[in-house]
Write a structure and sequence with these properties.
Shape: globular
Number of strands: 8
Order of helices and strands: HEEHEEEEEHE
Distance between the termini: 39 Å
Number of helices: 3
Largest sheet: 3 strands, antiparallel
Structural class: alpha+beta
Length: 144
C-alpha cells in the first residue's frame, strides 16, 4: 500500500512540475557591417513546452519581419540538453569596444529568477561578442 501511495505522489509531483515549464525561444538579429557584428534587436516568444516547434516558428517569423536586413541570428531557449533553465528571460546589451567597430553586443539568458537569468545572459554575450565594453544594460526582463 505504501508503494502505491508513493507512486501516486511521484506521478502527481512530476505532472505539477512539468506544467510550470514554459518553452521560451529568443533570437537576436545581427547585422554584419565592414566585418563588425552589430546586434540590431531581438524577439522573444513563449508557450507550452509541448508547443516548442510552434513557438520557435513564431519567433523566427517575428525576427524576419522586424529585422529583414539581418543575415545572422543568435538563437537561445530555456532548455539545454532537455534541462529546464527557468521561466525568467533577460536580454542584456553593451557597446562593442573593438577598434573600427561601432555597434551593440547582446545576450539572452534564462533562470529561475532575474539574477540567474542576467548572469546567463552576460555569459552568453561575452561568449558571442567578446569585444563588448562591459557597461551592461538590461534591455528586457520578464518572468513567463
Amino acid at each position: 500500500m505504501r508503494t502505491a501511495s508513493t507512486a501516486v505522489f511521484l506521478l502527481l509531483f512530476v505532472s505539477i512540475s512539468g506544467a510550470d515549464e514554459t518553452r521560451i525561444h529568443a533570437i537576436v538579429a545581427i547585422e554584419m557591417t565592414a566585418g563588425c557584428a552589430d546586434a540590431v534587436g531581438f524577439a522573444i516568444e513563449a508557450g507550452a513546452a509541448a508547443d516548442s516547434g510552434k513557438v520557435l516558428k513564431q519567433v523566427q517569423e517575428k525576427v524576419r519581419a522586424a529585422y529583414p536586413q539581418a543575415r545572422n541570428r543568435l538563437n537561445a531557449d530555456n532548455f539545454t540538453k532537455d534541462k529546464h533553465l527557468g521561466n525568467h528571460a533577460v536580454v542584456v546589451s553593451a557597446a562593442i569596444s573593438k577598434p573600427g567597430c561601432n555597434g551593440r553586443a547582446m545576450g539572452v539568458g534564462f533562470g529561475k529568477e532575474e539574477a540567474a537569468a542576467r548572469k546567463d545572459a552576460e555569459r552568453l554575450m561575452g561568449k558571442m561578442f567578446p569585444f563588448n565594453d562591459g557597461k551592461v544594460k538590461v534591455e528586457f526582463s520578464k518572468a513567463f
